[in-house]
């Protein structure tokens, strides 16, 4: 009647890994839709993940209302970029010579990618299956090129478009080598396409003709509010406290008043019965967007999704500031 795939992985927030449940391929028999089978299955999956130690559930939605009803909130974005290969033709002062590498051996690539996980928000620590999806999106291995700092994987040109399957280009040298590689296809293709974040380095370097082809949001569902807050990292040098209330219709023990103390980039959380200051209040889906940094506390407050006194909102603003969450992976 209904089916889904799910697995455990780590997703990085605030410079630290957070255990999450990834959900994919959710489907219900068309003849049986509307009878609650999908909701019952998802509730069972969430309960199983909670028991297994996941503190968040993450998915790429086909529809929003269904998942919002289960307590999911927008967690981050995936941007689809494109540019003509000539946009990368400007010579770079530093450019590495990228050498061919084996796309079926992801172990060295994971090491190259690790610093990006700590610097950003939302990037998953890929499982073997996610690496296969990233480097073999059409079933056949992409052409992989790398140096000692980064890599880029590209698919064979098709209909005068060149698709970048995956990339990790953290240094000026590897970035220069990648742009030189892409510019070399200007006689064969009209557009280069790739997935990235809002501050994607290839997009920042592209010249005339850069386009944002699409922007998709992925969803997060907190399963254990207290554990999630203690697993993630926080801004270095910040010492702050905040008190807030979370409401969760599916519970998981999430409903209640919390006091969060942040120091030394770590969070300590406690559930409390009484408070001496007015707490901020929010539904679980709003907490999801605040937790990942997809929406700031002040933006949620102005939108009427987060309630409280301005001084408490400002505390949450400082605690959950950081890089905009994104991930290139779809599942």
Keywords:
single chain, 331 residues, alpha+beta, Nonspecific Lipid-transfer Protein, Chain A, Aminopeptidase, eleven-stranded mixed beta sheet, five-stranded mixed beta sheet, 10 helices, globular, Eis_dom, Enhanced intracellular survival protein domain-containing protein
Rg, nearest Å: 21 Å
- Tell me the helix content: 25-40%
Strand content: 25-35%
Whole-Å distance between the termini?
A: 21 Å
Kindly report the average pLDDT value: 93
Judging from the principal axes of the Cα atoms, what is the shape? globular
What's the β-strand tally?
Answer: 16
| Strand arrangement, major sheet | 5-7-8-9-10-4-11-3-2-1-6
Describe this structure in words.
With 331 residues, this protein is an alpha+beta fold. It folds into 2 domains: 2-76 and 218-319, Nonspecific Lipid-transfer Protein, Chain A, CATH 3.30.1050.10; 85-208, Gcn5-related N-acetyltransferase (GNAT) (Aminopeptidase). It has 10 helices and 16 strands. The protein has helices spanning 37-52, 64-68, 107-119, 128-135, 172-183, 201-205, 225-231, 284-292, 297-302, 310-319; strands at 2-13, 16-28, 56-59, 73-83, 99-101, 124-125, 143-146, 151-154, 161-168, 191-196, 211-222, 240-247, 256-263, 266-272, 280-283, 306-307. The strands form 2 sheets. Strands 5-7-8-9-10-4-11-3-2-1-6 form an 11-stranded mixed sheet. A 5-stranded mixed sheet has the order 14-13-12-15-16. A hairpin with a 2-residue loop joins strand 13 (256-263) and strand 14. The longest helix has 16 residues, at 37-52. The protein is globular and about 65 Å long. The mean pLDDT is 93. GO terms for molecular function: aminoglycoside N-acetyltransferase activity. One of its GO terms (biological process) is aminoglycoside antibiotic catabolic process. Residues 225-328 form the Enhanced intracellular survival protein domain.
């Amino acid at each position: 009647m209904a089916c889904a795939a799910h697995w455990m992985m780590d997703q990085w927030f605030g410079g630290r890994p957070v255990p999450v449940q990834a959900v994919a391929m959710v489907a219900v028999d068309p003849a049986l839709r509307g009878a609650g089978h999908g909701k019952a299955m998802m509730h069972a999956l969430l309960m199983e993940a909670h028991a297994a130690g996941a503190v968040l559930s993450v998915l790429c939605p086909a529809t929003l209302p269904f998942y919002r009803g289960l307590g999911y909130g927008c967690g981050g974005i995936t941007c689809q970029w494109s540019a003509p290969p000539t946009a990368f033709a400007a010579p770079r002062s530093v450019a590495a010579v990228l050498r061919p590498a084996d796309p079926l051996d992801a172990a060295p690539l994971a090491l190259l990618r690790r610093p990006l996980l700590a610097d950003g928000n939302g990037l998953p620590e890929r499982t073997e299956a996610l690496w296969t999806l990233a480097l073999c999106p059409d079933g056949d291995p992409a052409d992989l090129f790398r140096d000692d700092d980064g890599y880029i994987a590209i698919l064979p040109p098709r209909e005068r478009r060149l698709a970048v399957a995956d990339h990790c280009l953290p240094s000026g040298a590897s970035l220069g080598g990648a742009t030189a590689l892409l510019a070399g296809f200007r006689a064969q293709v009209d557009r280069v396409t790739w997935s990235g974040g809002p501050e994607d380095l290839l997009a920042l370097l592209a010249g005339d003709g850069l386009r944002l082809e699409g922007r998709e949001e992925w969803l997060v569902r907190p399963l254990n509010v207290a554990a999630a807050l203690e697993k993630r990292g926080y801004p270095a040098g910040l010492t702050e406290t905040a008190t807030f209330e979370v409401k969760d219709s599916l519970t998981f023990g999430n409903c209640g008043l919390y006091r969060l103390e942040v120091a030394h980039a770590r969070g300590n959380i406690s559930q409390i019965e009484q408070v001496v200051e007015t707490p901020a209040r929010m539904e679980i889906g709003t907490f999801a967007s605040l937790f990942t940094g997809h929406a700031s506390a002040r933006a949620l407050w102005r939108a009427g999704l987060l309630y409280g006194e301005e001084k408490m909102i400002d505390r949450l603003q400082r605690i959950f500031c950081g890089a905009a969450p994104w991930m290139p992976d779809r599942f």
